[in-house]
Each structure stands twice: as structure tokens, then as C-alpha cells.
Amino acid sequence: FSRALATTWDITSAMNYFLATGNVITKSGLGLMQFTGTTVIAEKLNYWRYLSHFRCVHRGAFFAEMRTT
User: Fold this and answer.
1) DSSP per residue over 40-52, as a string?
2) 48 three-class SS
3) In terms of residue numbers, what domain contains 44?
4) Which of 2, 6, 8, 36 is 20 to 30 A from 68, alpha carbon to alpha carbon?
5) DSSP 3-state percent helix, strand, coil across the chain (nearest 5)
6) Which residues contact 24 (CB under 8 A, 6 or more apart)?
7) What is the pLDDT of residue 43?
């Protein structure tokens, strides 16, 4: 068990990086269309300002860069 535990990938450092920067580090790709800008930083200084962080829906960098007519 200890050998299996030692060879596993450390998920905590990846989650810390994801929450701090919003960028995903993955070996498999996870089937995601974007790897940057996936987190919302919300500061809870005041309740209404905290809720205003979630008022807008962002579809992601993939849709912002997509060129369709």
C-alpha cells in the first residue's frame, strides 16, 4: 500500500495551482476545450459584492476565440 501511495500523483499541488491561477495541469487532457481561466476569484468583503461575482456567465476562452459567422 505504501508503494502505491508513493507512486500516485499529488493532487493537492495541482488543486492549489488550479485555484490560484485558474489554469489546469493535466496529463490526459480531461476532454476540456480550455485550460485557462476556469476559476472565479470571489472575495467575501460584503455579501452583495460576493454575489455579484456569480451574476455573469462566462462561456470560456474557447468561445471567445472561436470565429464563426
Assistant:
1) -----SSHHHHHH
2) helix
3) 2-65
4) 36
5) 40, 0, 60
6) 18, 30, 32, 35, 36, 38
7) 63
- Tens-digit pLDDT string for the chain (69 aa): 677 766 666 777 777 787 777 778 777 767 777 777 666 665 666 777 777 766 665 566 666 677 765
pLDDT given at position 15: 77
Instruction: Count up the domains in the chain and report the number.
Output: 1
Phi, psi of 5 (to 5 degrees): -65, -35
Using CA of residue 69, residue 65, residue 61, residue 13, what is the dihedral sign? positive
Residues 6+ apart with CB under 8 A from 38: 18, 22, 23, 24, 60
Q: Is 65 exposed, middle or buried (0-12, 13-18, 19+ CB in 10 A)?
A: exposed
